[in-house]
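= Tokenised fold =
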Amino acid sequence: MSKTVQFETGTSIDSLQALVKYFASNKEIDNTGIANSFQAKLKNNNLNSFVHEVQAQIRKHISSEAAEYLRRDAQFILAQK
């Protein structure tokens, strides 16, 4: 017997900041200056610039997987506005 389960997930600026911190501590963001720049953009609610910077840093200073999580969550927040 199988069941269908529905669940809902969400994100916020706070959760994005926590993800940046997590990815930096695991070296998926390998440059402290880049991580600080991400955090500053989030602190100022500058999500469009955050997304653009994440995209610009893929495979330079941020892993593809980390970038995908950050970009997806930021775009979700932008779509809610």
